[in-house]
Amino acid sequence: MAVVILIRGNSGSGKSVVARELHSILGQGNLLISQDNVRREMLNVRDKPNNLAIALIENILSYGISNCDYVILEGILAENKYGIMLRNSLKQADKVLAYYYDLSFEETLKRHESKEFTDFGEMEMRSWFTPKDFIGLENEKAIKEDVTKDEMIKNILEDLGLNETS
Fold first, then answer.
1. What's the pLDDT tens digit per position in 99-132?
2. Is 164 within the bounds of a domain?
3. Is residue 166 domain-resident?
């Protein structure tokens, strides 16, 4: 049974970069599930209520919980679309570490604009932005804009009882 590390937040918050680096640090026996990868690349569906990605993420998450040491699930994973599935699915895990990037729109836009390649801009981001989109998990931690990528990874590793040299 796995420990699930849930990293959520609005577009541009930095969750994907943290998840990829954490996946690399944790090594073999862990699964990285990216909402964007499942929804856009695997299924090519819009992020609307009841889209096909919700059930596929649920199935991949269940597989990971049963077969992996760690499951990292990252994405916007909006509460109004994914909340019920997440709350139900996460009950299967031995432990859940949940993090939500609680950032202002201005901060997410600034972070997005610092990327080398972007395929959307301010107008799209503004239309997607949902402040304070917590899913109501008991231990869900709010991540503020003063937390760097490296600090975030360090915090997660500490919450796992690990350090970067493990």
1. 999 998 888 777 666 666 667 666 777 777 899 9
2. no
3. no
